[in-house]
């Protein structure tokens, strides 16, 4: 009898684990119903902390009745702060009680048009870039040209390469290389070709080692900006907000209803970017 009970309990546990695993692997679709129209989106499976917390808050009705309180044309619409439920006209919003979770910033999820993202506090108060999942924003963005993308890569990578080079080309190394060049010239002037050749080989050995060290540190640096072909294509066709990549967690994307997003983003606003006409999030549903 005990064995049967244990066997039944084991089946229940295994079943529960299987259901959880299956749920985690299932692409979750959501509906954001607003008084300006419906926005459909999906939540990524590889940002599970954001996905599970968004589902939990949506099922609890946490987002229902709030506003898209920030709308900036060619930038973003942002909403769902708790202080945006039935607020007075003209007051600044977005400072409600937050639900902070760990960042899940992935290089293959970026701020292309329609990206669903989590806002956060600035770095000075939030070193680990933790997200406030009680709010969210949707990217509208703009289209970039190839030159802009190249310049953005250079603006990050050239200073990085210079810093790494300066690290290896310190005063001692520079003085050593200068000494070898001088000794080579002196040897040539004295007609000692063997010594001159030796000094050239010593110079090249040091220079080649430094070049390899610089190249290795630069190529392996997490600070280096590498814009993938897929990302480059998206930013030069559908557009987005490339400068936000790596700073905020992107945990989903709009699948239908970007016309509604763009309509909201184009609304007249006050100096705090709050739409003069309230944009209400009637309900967020997990489909």
A few lines on this structure:
The protein has 287 residues and is α+β, with helices and mostly antiparallel strands.
Descriptive terms for the model:
287 residues; eight-stranded antiparallel β-barrel; two-stranded antiparallel ribbon
Tally of DSSP β-strands:
10
Q: How many helix segments? A: 7
Q: What is the SS-derived class? A: alpha+beta
Topology as a string of helices (H) and strands (E): HEEHEEEEEEHHHHEHE
Approximately what portion of the residues adopt beta-strand conformation? 15-25%
Span from first to last CA?
A: 42 Å
Radius of gyration, whole Å: 28 Å
Oligomer: single chain
Mean pLDDT: 91
Global shape = elongated
* Helical amount: 40-55%
The largest pleated sheet is described as: 8 strands, antiparallel, barrel
Uncertain runs = 1-23
Structure description:
- It is built from 7 helices and 10 strands.
- By secondary structure, it is of the alpha+beta class.
- The strands form 2 sheets. It has an 8-stranded antiparallel barrel with strand order 1-2-9-6-8-4-3-10.
Topology:
Blueprint: H1 2-25, E1 28-34, E2 37-43, H2 48-59, E3 66-71, E4 76-79, E5 100-101, E6 115-118, E7 131-132, E8 136-139, H3 146-168, H4 171-189, H5 193-220, H6 229-237, E9 249-256, H7 258-265, E10 280-286
Antiparallel strand pairs: 1-2, 1-10, 2-9, 3-4, 3-10, 4-8, 5-7, 6-8, 6-9
């Amino acid at each position: 009898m005990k064995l049967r009970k244990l066997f039944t309990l084991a089946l229940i546990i295994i079943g529960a684990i299987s259901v959880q695993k299956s749920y985690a692997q299932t692409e979750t679709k959501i509906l954001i119903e607003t008084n300006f129209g419906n926005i459909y989106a999906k939540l990524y499976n590889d940002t599970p902390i954001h996905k599970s917390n968004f589902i939990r808050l949506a099922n609890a009705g946490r987002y229902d009745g709030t506003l898209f309180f920030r709308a900036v044309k060619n930038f973003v619409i942002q909403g769902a702060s708790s202080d945006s439920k039935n607020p007075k006209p003209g007051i600044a919003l977005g400072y409600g009680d937050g639900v902070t979770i760990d960042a899940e910033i992935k290089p293959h999820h970026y701020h292309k048009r329609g990206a669903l993202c989590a806002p956060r506090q600035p770095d000075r108060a939030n070193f680990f870039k933790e997200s406030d999942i009680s709010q969210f924003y949707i990217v509208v963005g703009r289209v970039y040209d190839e030159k802009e993308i190249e310049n953005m890569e250079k603006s990050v990578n050239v200073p990085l390469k210079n810093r790494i080079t300066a690290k290896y080309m310190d005063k001692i190394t520079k003085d050593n290389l200068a000494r070898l060049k001088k000794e080579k010239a002196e040897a040539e002037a004295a007609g000692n070709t063997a010594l001159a050749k030796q000094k050239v080989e010593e110079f090249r050995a040091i220079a080649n080692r430094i070049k390899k060290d610089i190249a290795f540190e630069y190529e392996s640096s997490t600070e280096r900006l590498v814009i993938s072909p897929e990302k480059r294509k998206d930013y030069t066709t559908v557009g987005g907000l490339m400068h936000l990549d790596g700073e905020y967690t992107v945990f989903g994307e709009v699948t239908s209803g970007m016309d509604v997003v763009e309509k909201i983003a184009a609304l007249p606003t006050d100096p705090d970017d709050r739409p003069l006409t309230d944009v209400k999030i009637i309900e967020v549903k997990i489909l």
